[in-house]
Amino acid sequence: MRIVADTHTHTISSGHAYSTIQENAKEAFANGIQMINMSDHGPAMSGAPFRYHFGNLEIIPDSLYGVRVLKGVELNIMNYSGKVDLDGYYLEKLDLVLASYHDICIKPAAIEEHTAGAIHIISDPYIDVFAHPGNPQFQIDIEKVVKAARDYNKIIEINNQSVVVRRGSEKNCLQIARMCKKYGVRVTTGSDAHISFGIGRFDFVAKLLEEAEMPEELVITTSLGKMEDYLIERRKRIGKPAGRKY
Ligand SMILES: [Zn+2]
Ligand SMILES: [Zn+2]
């Protein structure tokens, strides 16, 4: 299967990433990627952009150098009751919203808490994707979380960086992929690139999807049509008319 969208990329705005949105788009094009989501870290992470960054993303063209550019965020999950670090005012303007656990923003706790937190996130209408769910530092009850994604029609991420920066994720990621297949939950693919060279690099993701024998129809990033359909679905869910973002 061919992946044409990368829904998790960082720019220099994240503070600890090193490429501009132009550089990312050019590299995406060179790597055969047709769509990227600009998902810089939410404001609670040190060095991440102030919230105004997310209010001004509309000035970036929807397409750069032949690549469709989504305006998004990787929110920080701040507690186990569903608190994140941007409010609805900003989130309703965005195209695709990721949320994830980072130990610099929330202290790891017990599996029950990680699971409850993830389910709160998945039930939040503004949040589309639970990102890098395989992190063993924030071990979840995989079946419960995937079932919640099914119930709320949300997306689970398979993250290419998980094997590199979140050691021990591999086993969890495979189990998550298998569970998504079992329950018919859509997955997305994120390079989590922090420099342009990583955009659209899906070596780990491709291996994992193959191992899990994931049906192509569940991988939302294999066609632009599926991605655009999802964006319409999101806008309907949050009560924004289709085709009008702002
Ligand atoms: Zn992350
Ligand atoms: Zn990230």
From TrEMBL:
Keywords: Hydrolase. SUPFAM superfamilies: PHP domain-like. GO terms for molecular function: phosphoric ester hydrolase activity; zinc ion binding. It comes from the Bacteria. SMART domains: POLIIIAc. One of its GO terms (cellular component) is cytosol. Residues 5-79 form the Polymerase/histidinol phosphatase N-terminal domain. Gene3D superfamilies: Metal-dependent hydrolases. PANTHER family: PHOSPHATASE YCDX-RELATED. NCBIfam families: PRK09248.1 (NF006702). This is Putative hydrolase.
